[in-house]
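[Discussion] Sanity-checking designs against the backbone

I'm trying to build intuition for which residues belong where. Below is a structure token string of 265 positions. I'd appreciate it if someone posts a full sequence so I can compare it with mine line by line.
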């Protein structure tokens, strides 16, 4: 089961898992299921309280198979350990897993990015056409080597969930538009106090133009000043450049957790 004080990254993830999924506590781990989206790596997973030992490179995947083996649509293995310690991941790497460290960044105030893009228009996503444009933008940068049709299906289901959450007043999706074309987007959802950003994405043709920083800063100010949220949370891959963009507008690294995942075509 979850430790007494899980990281903000895990706690805010549960906002989404509990909306349309299942959160099941076992003696030594947490099971997260998203029945509506079996291809969702980080929606069908196990979360552990302790870092892996060498034996866990076989023991943890066996637990995953026990929990998810009855669903042939789940063709991945995702394991998270909610600790600062990385543990022994040699066995996972040898078995073909991708091992990542996630940075949990938070902000109680924000500042403008070093490079502001004044040409874009930022507004909430509300229409069918805009939601479809979000899907088209999101699928341009797959994080794993999935079949394009499978990845489109995964993203479509994921955005459908975010739209349902927005329509129930749990947050909103925002887009940055240039000449009426969506070129960047993100989600912001909250529990009334803590806000969690989701899926920050910029069209590949419009990167390094200050768009991402401008979008994040604008929505963060909206969350703090208009919605009255007290803490904003971002989770980013330690090895990816996005964390630096978030730090430029005032986010600071607060915690880390780790993951090992593998796609089995």
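Best answer:
Here's mine. Compare freely.
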């Amino acid at each position: 089961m979850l430790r007494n004080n899980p990281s903000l990254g895990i706690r805010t993830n549960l906002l989404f898992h509990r909306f349309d999924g299942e959160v099941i506590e076992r003696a030594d781990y947490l099971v997260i299921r998203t029945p509506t989206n079996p291809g969702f790596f980080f929606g069908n997973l196990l979360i552990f309280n302790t870092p892996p030992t060498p034996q866990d490179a076989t023991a943890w995947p066996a637990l995953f198979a026990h929990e998810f083996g009855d669903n042939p649509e789940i063709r991945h293995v995702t394991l998270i350990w909610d600790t600062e310690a990385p543990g022994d991941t040699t066995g996972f790497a040898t078995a073909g897993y991708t091992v990542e460290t996630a940075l949990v960044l938070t902000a109680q105030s924000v500042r403008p990015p070093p490079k502001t893009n004044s040409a874009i228009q930022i507004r909430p996503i509300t229409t069918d056409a805009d939601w479809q444009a979000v899907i088209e933008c999101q699928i341009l940068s797959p994080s794993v080597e999935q079949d394009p049709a499978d990845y489109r299906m995964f993203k479509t289901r994921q955005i459908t969930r975010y739209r349902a959450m927005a329509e129930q007043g749990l947050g909103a999706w925002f887009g940055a538009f240039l000449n009426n074309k969506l070129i960047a987007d993100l989600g912001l959802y909250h529990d009334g106090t803590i806000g969690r950003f989701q899926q920050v994405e910029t069209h590949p043709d419009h990167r390094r133009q200050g768009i991402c920083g401008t979008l994040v800063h604008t929505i963060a100010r909206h969350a703090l000043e208009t919605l009255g949220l007290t803490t904003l949370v971002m989770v980013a891959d330690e090895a990816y450049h996005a964390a630096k963009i978030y730090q430029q507008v005032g986010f600071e690294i607060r915690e880390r957790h780790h993951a090992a995942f593998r796609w089995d075509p």
